[in-house]
Amino acid sequence: MTLHTLVVGSGDCAARVTKMLAARGAVVLVAGAEKDLGKDLMDQGGGSGTTGVELLASTRLISCSGSVGNFEVLLETNHKRIRHNVDSIIIAENCRRRANFDRYGLRPTTQVCSLSDFTKRIEDSR
Predict the structure, then answer these.
(1) Tally: H helices and E strands in the chain
(2) I need a surface site. Which of 11, 25, 34, 99 has the fewest CB within 10 A?
(3) Cα four-point dihedral sign 13, 20, 60, 92
(4) What is the 3-class SS of 18-41, one letter each residue?
(5) CA-CA distance, 15 to 9, in Å (whole number)?
(6) How many CB atoms lie within 10 A of CB 100?
(7) 44: Cβ–Cβ under 8 A, 6 or more apart, which residues?
(8) Average per-residue pLDDT in the chain?
(9) Could you report the per-residue pLDDT of 40-81, keeping only the tens digit for each?
(10) Beta 27-31 vs 113-114: how paired, if at all?
(11) Is the distance from CB of 64 to CB of 38 less than 8 angstroms?
């Protein structure tokens, strides 16, 4: 089964987690408010040319419902609303290493975690 993951954010953190997930065969949707969303991904060799990665620049998260393994998200890009179903959501942290849940209208739960928590969970599972 292929894991479908939404990465919300941009910058180095989003680029690193996207590259890692894509390398493991996940389908990754990267959504961020920035117009140059793919710059860091391209710099790290994990941009839209990478299999299984879709970039949505100038995009904001409108709503999110569901639970782990079955989220439905509503995104708005270029004044157009689109729905996606994903298994997991990762909120990419900004460079200050502080989770930015409020920026996207989310709150941390056991199913929605920051990149630091996600990394720790992977390390703990090894």
Answers:
(1) 3, 8
(2) 25
(3) negative
(4) HHHHHHCCCEEEEECCCCCCCHHH
(5) 9
(6) 16
(7) 15, 16, 19
(8) 85
(9) 665 555 454 567 899 999 999 999 999 989 999 999 998 999
(10) unpaired
(11) no
In Å, how far are 42, 49, 75, 125 from 116, measured between CA atoms? Answer: 22, 26, 24, 14
Q: What is the CA radius of gyration of the chain?
A: 13
* Tokens 């990665």 belong to residue: 53
Q: Which amino acid is at 95?
A: C
Q: Is 9 left (phi over 0), alpha (psi -120 to 50) or beta?
A: left
Contact 17, 7 (CB under 8 A): yes
Task: Give dist(CA 63, CA 4) in Å, integer.
Answer: 17
Query: Is there a contact between 8 and 74 (Cβ–Cβ < 8 Å)?
Result: no
Q: What percent of the chain has pLDDT over 90?
A: 43
| Amino acid symbol at 85 | N
Residue 101 one-letter amino acid: F
d(CA 108, CA 101): 7
Residue where the block lists tokens 């910058």: 11
Phi, psi torsion values for 46, nearest 5 degrees? -130, 30
